Amino acid sequence: MGFVVLHMEKAHGSDSGTTAHIERFIIPKNADPTRTHLNRKLVAYPDGIKDRSAAIRRRLEEAGLTRKIGNNQVRAIRINVSGTHEDMERIEREGRLDEWCADNMKYFADTFGKENIVAAHLHRDEETPHIHVTLVPIVKGERKRRKREEQAKKRYRKKPTDTVRLCADDIMTRLRLKSYQDTYAEAMAKYGLQRGIDGSKARHKSTQQYYNETKKLADSLKAEVVDLQRQKETAQEELRRTKKRYRPRS
Fold first, then answer.
1. Is 85 in the same domain as 164?
2. Region Disordered: what ranges (predicted)?
């Protein structure tokens, strides 16, 4: 039984680089261009919206926010979901990939609100099938008191419980991140996937870290292949010389 993969990280700024990667405006080195046509959009953009970045902006414009968005404020959360490579290959062979995609979209719509899932892309041109989900962190309710307000014991006027706010921190608290891992694994159990070890010291890597480390590993393996090829050629040359040296005279 394999494991689920659920990775969440905050996006900063316009996140245009990630949009280019996800939308395949630029084909990454680890992708097979002969399979890029198999990639699919799982969320249809509204009329007039051409890409993921525009979809993020549209959601922010229509959310009904009352506070101005700060320059450094997180506008979107990147979510990457998949499973153990062998299990994802099995799901493909069994013809259940569409079902897996549908169950993923249902999970994220139920968990974060369908209107906040502004983009989702299935990638099949990389080694393991996976989905990139884009979540705009719109939440409702009163914001948490600031520490200095509590210390000063200032009167704090509560906002209506339906106040619309942009707050990635509310979505990505430690307890909620743990809960997502639990509930997502439950939703994917029907595919023979289970949650990773609870409390593991393993840490998520950013997409860029993953690609950098993959490239380093690939370069290292290439160097080893070249070295082995040289050793093979040297051994073959030695064998030819030995055979020639000890060839019986007629």
1. yes
2. 231-250
Q: Could you read off the pLDDT of 105-129 as tens digits, one per residue? A: 999 999 999 999 999 999 999 999 9
Kindly tell me the sign of the dihedral angle through the C-alpha atoms of 200, 89, 31, 8: negative
Q: What is the mean pLDDT of residues 220-237?
A: 69
Instruction: Note the pLDDT tens digit of each residue in 61-76.
Output: 999 999 999 989 999 9
Domain count for the chain, please give it. Answer: 2
Domain shared by 197 and 218, yes or no: no
> Higher model confidence: residue 223 or residue 153?
223
Bridge-based pairing state of the strands 193-194 and 2-11: parallel
CA 145, 171, 21, 44 dihedral sign is negative
pLDDT digits 0-9 by tens, 33-53: 999 999 999 999 999 999 999
- Spatial distance between the Cα atoms of 45 and 156, rounded to a whole number of angstroms: 40
How much is the pTM? Answer: 0.75
**142 shares a domain with 127:** yes
